[in-house]
Amino acid sequence: MEVIIIRINLFSVMGEPWWKVLFKMLLASTVPLSIFIRLYFFMRPPLFSTYEVLPENLVIRYRKSEKRIRWEQVKEVKFSWLSPRFLGGFTLILSTGTKWRFFLALHHSHKILEAVYRQQPALISEARLQKYTAMSHLVDVSWQRLREKLRRWPRWMLKYLAVPAAVSVIYDFYIWRSQGQVPTLEQGMGLFLAAFSVVFLVGFICNSIEEKVVIRQLRLAMAAAAGQMPTRQKQFESKVEGALTIVFFLVLLVLFYLGFSLIY
Q: At residue 17, what are phi and psi to the nearest 5 degrees?
């Protein structure tokens, strides 16, 4: 994982020559550009390729190119811990050292694993294969839940923007009352970005837990129904979301209180 922090100090560049400011802006712009290039060349092909599972090999077609993976070439299978909505899936590691990643978003991606299991059953346990197959059948439900959450964008704005802004204002007010000085714009922005990072991390963890709990309940229901797609239990999903929302705010309260105590 790469963590990239871009910090722009407006006051430090105001007195510098224009060419130096332009150079710094161009240098900073290479960071998002490099991310876009990586996404375009490494993420776009797998998402827009077609896959054909044959008895002897897997055929991957992207535009005019075609690649084949023989099942006997696979020496290891690694599963991702990410949920379907975060592009979880698995990786096939070949004897040549080449790695091929397959996302759960790929429709019926479990058929690739089933083909590997038929050729090399020692690489995947039957229980792990059954679990992934159930997840593959439920990936459409996971994306449907994500779309429903995105429609409630005011709640997301409240969580990820209003909460960090409120924390920043409270801290700034305390600095003003205790030290008798008005915090600078740079201090205020720093507090907001720090609070936003904490809120985003806690929200990501809570959202992942919620997704795993809901999908697990659906997977158990599907197993009880002999593989038939179960009906979503909206009441159960609401209870899980409500409980984790409470946990979300309690964790933030504890973290911000501890941070406030340590800093001030």
A: -60, 155
State pLDDT tens for residues 218-255.
Answer: 888 877 777 677 788 889 999 999 999 999 999 999 98
The CA distance from 164 to 187, in Å, is 14
Alpha carbon of 7 to those of 24, 31, 167: distances in Å?
Answer: 11, 12, 20
Chunked in runs of 10, what are the mean pLDDT values of the chain (264 residues)?
Answer: 42 60 65 62 65 89 86 91 72 91 82 92 89 81 83 86 86 73 72 86 90 86 75 88 93 85 68
Longest CA span, the chain: 75
Evaluated on CA atoms 88, 1, 125, 42, the torsion sign reads positive
Q: Compute CA 102 distance to the chain's CA centroid, rounded to the nearest angstrom.
A: 15
Q: Which amino acid is at 144?
A: Q
Task: Tally the C-alpha atoms within 13 A of residue 234's C-alpha that lie toward its C-beta.
Answer: 2
Q: Quote the CA–CA distance of 78 and 27 in Å, as a whole number.
A: 37
Q: Determine if residue 172 is left, alpha or beta; phi over 0 gives left, psi from -120 to 50 gives alpha, anything else beta.
A: alpha
Q: Token pair for residue 116? A: 């590997």
